[in-house]
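Q: Joint fold for the lines below.
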Amino acid sequence: MDSALLLELSINGACTGMMYALVAAGIVLIYKTSGVANLAQGALAMTGAYVAWIASTLVGLPMWIGAPLAALVMFGVGALIERLAMRRMIGQPLIMAIMLTMGLEIMLRGVMPGLLGGTVKKIDIGIPNAPIIAGDILINRTLLIGGGVSFAMIVASILFFNSRLGVVMRAVSDDQTASWSVGIRVERAIAVAWGLSAVMATTAGLLWGATQGVDWSLSLLLVKALAIAILGGLDSLPGVLIAGVAVGVIESLATGIIDPVIGGGSREVVASAIILATLLVRPHGLLGREHIERV
Amino acid sequence: MKRRTFLTAAGAAMVGMQFPIRLASAQEKVIRFAMPQDFTRVYTFVTVEYSQGQRDYISMVNAKGGVNGYQILADVTDHANDLPRALEAYERAKAQGALLVDPLSTPVARALVPRATADKINLITAFSGRSDAADGETFPFVFPMSPNYWTQAGLLIDFFRQQDGDLKGKKICFVHIDTPFGKEPIPVLEALAAKQGFTVQAFPYTPPGNDQSAIWPQVRRAKPDWVVFWGAGVGQTVALTEAIRNGIPMNRVSSSVWLSESDMDVVGRAQAAGVIKLEPCASGRSPKLIQDIIKTVIEPGKGAGDKAKVGTAYYNYGVMMAALMVEGVRKAFEKAPNGPIDGPWLNAGLTSISNFEAEGLIPPTTVTTTDHQGGGRCRIARWDGAKFAPATDWFSANQDVVWAEIKKSTDAFKASGK
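A: Joint structure:
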């Protein structure tokens, strides 16, 4: 096997994995604060990309205004989801809240392409297609920049948990009842988490939209994001960073090494195998907290 | 009391209103085409424009008096690529007396083959469905009336041969979506490789193809003489973008009929210049038939959709197929002016289409009881940065290999019923 090819696949895979990790970070953010696994995160990424496309193409705003505007709008959408839908699930079985997010996913996946048309939309965030060539290795510029932006956003979200609002959200994630008792507005903290998660999804949607165009298939980011969130630990943002790189590199190398032998299809198997193996061997993931209950 | 009177009166009015409508329907001379298609799920990349082209052409025919005084009724519904919905739409179409059904979906078309054959309703499977349906003797009521995927692969290989003189020792990389549709051309490519001395290296990608970043570095390192990418929708735009990012020369990169102007918009019009596709019909607004549609339907404001889409590749595919269907009706009237107007009647018309060119929009197309593909002609077009410009005239190639594959497949169908 060509070692240069393996290195190239590893670098591009790490960048791709980091871009998936940004979607996973949104799932973790919501899980950390409310204990709900948000299955609509892929659809939120798709919706954010559509909103940016509306702002830049239909309204005609330059992308440097359209992208932050889309993030702002999606923050509101995320907070509204919490206010109008998730808050009503308080007191209901957890599975109801998770099913609600799944319903949201199905609805958004149908509504957005239904309203805006099914053809793939172009979104230009100004990254040229020309690759970076280092000797015999070619690094995909879009993936490199996308991976860099994703890394920066995840690190920022880790740092955010040290801010005043972040400490409030940590308290909520530790014990909602205790947080209530000391006067923390738990609902507001969860709404902020949903808003921030939607902003992360929008950024991921923009980066992936610039790579593949905007259409319903952006919602499929959910599968990889779930694999990364489970492997890293559903309540660990640093875990997402490590798992993102791991999943990206393994998938990419599998495509290069296993696909030529078995005739293709290994990439999808990798994500599902990671989910299964993690749940069987280390259910709380690489850096997630292990919940031990006294019985 | 007043409420009851009102409801009774309203109910009576509703019942009464049915009679004039039914009488009018019975008196109208209408030929019904059922077009349940996928507007909301998998085929969204093509259906809107394809259907728009079909409806605009039919509107033009009707505006000019129809065929033999009969109006063509295009009954458009959404089956969402969902088999139960599609079967329901088919049964409704059958009950309403549709002479043909055009589902524009491979899984739906495959599911409908036994029903349509039993019911003697003509099933249009342009650019979809079973490739072996070209064999009219095995599938008498299934009509691709367009080059199947085996023919498309054969045409591309012949174009490469025309360009290079000889393909001996050349390497062709085939990047395809990992589905039955994506794998379909492989037997023909392998047969031609054995015959002409080139090698084929296949690179499957996971559906729908939104991440192909690990595939294209391998394609680049294989140093191909030609690249064929084979998918649809987002898989096509991602493939082309990755080819550009990997520095593969666009004038050596090619695809099937599934490449459109909207794909070029996503990839970048200038960057994609040089890429090759197969054209089953002329694109753009210059063909006479498209000009007629613009004058008769679009300018009076009677178009079925966005004016900007008139003349795009997929719009013209829709016009092409509607023109072939209506030509089938014309031929049917020539053969049996007094009907009875039913599926077998239209079938006789469709299989009598001879050297039909739709006023220069399509290659000379002849459909017979044995060849439902229509001759397998296409032309190669190159994206010049603004439009798909023809690079060849209409031609047919490697039909011996294609028909050998068709016969192999129909033999298997006859043996297994699948």
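Q: Anything notable?
A: Chain A has a mean pLDDT of 91. Chain A has one domain: 3-125+133-281.
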